[in-house]
Amino acid sequence: MLTETGRAAWHEALDVVGREERRLLGVLTEEERRTLSDLLRKVMLAQEATEG
C-alpha cells in the first residue's frame, strides 16, 4: 500500500510521462499514431512469442 507521499510521487511521475508522450507523439496525426501503435504491438507480440 502506498503512503500519501508515495501516491503523490506516483501521480507526478505519471503526469511527467503523459506530458512527454504528448510532446513526442504530438507531431503525428491520429492515423500515424494508430499505425505506430499497431506496429509496436506487432513487434511486442513477436518478442513475446520468442520468449515462450
Describe this structure in words.
The protein is built from two helices and no strands. The chain is mainly α and 52 residues long. It has helices at 4-25, 30-51.
In round numbers, the mean pLDDT is 95
Helix and strand content put the structural class at: mainly alpha
* Inertia-based shape: flat
| Count of helix runs | 2
Order of helices and strands: HH
Cα distance spanning the termini: 32 Å
Radius of gyration: 16 Å
The percent range for strand residues is under 5%
- Contiguous runs where pLDDT drops below 50 for at least 5 residues: none
Q: How much helix, percentage-wise, in residues?
A: over 70%
Total beta-strand segments: 0
Main beta-sheet annotation: none
Structure summarized in a few sentences:
By secondary structure, the chain is an all-alpha fold. Helix content is 85%, strand content 0%.
Topology:
Elements: H1 4-25, H2 30-51
What features would you highlight for this structure?
flat, 52 residues, mainly alpha
